[in-house]
Amino acid sequence: MEHAKLLKIIAPCGLSCAACLSMRDGEIETLSRKLRQRLGGFARFAERFMAMDPAFADYPAFERMLDFFSQAKCDGCRVGGCLHTDCPVHLCVKEKHVDYCHQCQDFPCGKLDDKPWLKVKWEKNNLRLREIGIEAYHLEIKDLPRYG
Q: Would you list the domain boundaries of the chain?
């Protein structure tokens, strides 16, 4: 895969933008649109299906979530800024003129000390990126769930 495409789908922190629920034309948006299309006008039938399974009472909430997932608006953190607006990583790599944090002479740094949920993943991801390179890293994570 070409380097520019990899930069779009692998964030500087090493997370997969391609697997993010907010990524325009990402897998979640694409699959959600397909499911929405397949279900068509199912909402009017959901009440009838409640006799088979009470879970269908929650169909309106499911449909709202499916609509949300079907309308992703992000083009990746390198383009429009991270959806986690308080995440400093995308700004820092721009300032340091690097693609990934592991390329910075200050890595690992304390920029994420106040975000332990991200810091552990960020450091692990960037160490792995440095070890095997972006192409191999992409192949390693491309089919993994983003939120696992």
A: 1-19+81-148, 27-71
